[in-house]
Amino acid sequence: MEPQKRNRPNNLVLVLIALTALMIIIYGVLVMFFPAVFENMNTGEIQPVRPNE
């Protein structure tokens, strides 16, 4: 019997999945070592609307 050909995804798909995982890991490391950078980021919280004067 011949070895069966494996059904592998496209290389681009593998690269995108690897980059996504790497970005999540890098984000976690940055949050652990530099929390002050992420504390000042805009979180999209609702702010009161000031009328134009």
Describe what this molecule looks like in 3D.
The protein is mostly helical and 53 residues long. It has a domain at 11-36. It contains two helices and no strands. It has helices at residues 11-33, 35-39. The chain is elongated and about 80 Å long. The model has no long low-confidence stretch (mean pLDDT 87). Keywords: Membrane, Transmembrane, Transmembrane helix. The chain crosses the membrane at residues 12-38.
SSE order and pairing:
Layout: H1 11-33, H2 35-39
Transmembrane segments: 12-38
Keywords: Membrane, Transmembrane, Transmembrane helix
Mean pLDDT score, rounded? 87
Molecular shape: elongated
Element-level helix/strand string:
HH
Please give the radius of gyration in angstroms: 22 Å
Oligomer type:
single chain
Helical fraction equals 40-55%
Which range does the strand content fall in?
A: under 5%
**Low-confidence parts, pLDDT < 50 over ≥5 residues?**
none
Our measurement of the CA-to-CA distance between the termini, rounded to an integer number of angstroms, reads: 83 Å
Q: Which sheet architecture does the biggest sheet show?
A: none
Tally the beta strands: 0
Structural class comes to mainly alpha
Tally of separate helices: 2
Keywords: Membrane, Transmembrane, Transmembrane helix
